[in-house]
Every structure is written in structure tokens, then in C-alpha cells.
Amino acid sequence: MTQLKPTLEVTVSNAAAMETELAAAVEAVRQAALAERRCGILITRHGAGKYTVGLSEDVPFGLTWERDAG
User: Fold this and answer.
1) Whole-prediction pTM value?
2) What angle do CA 61, 65, 70 make, to 5 degrees?
3) Whole-number Å distance between alpha carbons of 64 and 26
4) Max CA-CA distance within the chain?
């Protein structure tokens, strides 16, 4: 999958922080997606408490997909 800028890294230590931090990252990236109107948002889990949130040409505009890279 192709990820574009902006891509944000999110590192959390508990489930409550995960919800809050990922929601904030998705909202920030959503603004860029709305400006470009050609990419969706991809949330990737890289390991325990480690995520990236970014635009992806592989995700249709208006959608958010999740994947586990582990």
C-alpha cells in the first residue's frame, strides 16, 4: 500500500490513550484528505501501542482502513 504525506506516528501505553490519540491523528489527516480529495486514510498497527495514520492512494477517498503490519 502506498502512503503519502502527511503521516503521523502515534505511540500509546494504554487503551484509553489509544482511542484519544488515534482519533486526534485521524482528524488531522482527514483535513489533508479533504483538501486532496483523492486518497483515503490508512491506520497501520506496527506493534504494541505503535501506529501510523496517513493518507493512502490504495484507500478510496472518504474511507478509513485499518491494517496490522505485524
Assistant:
1) 0.88
2) 145
3) 9
4) 33
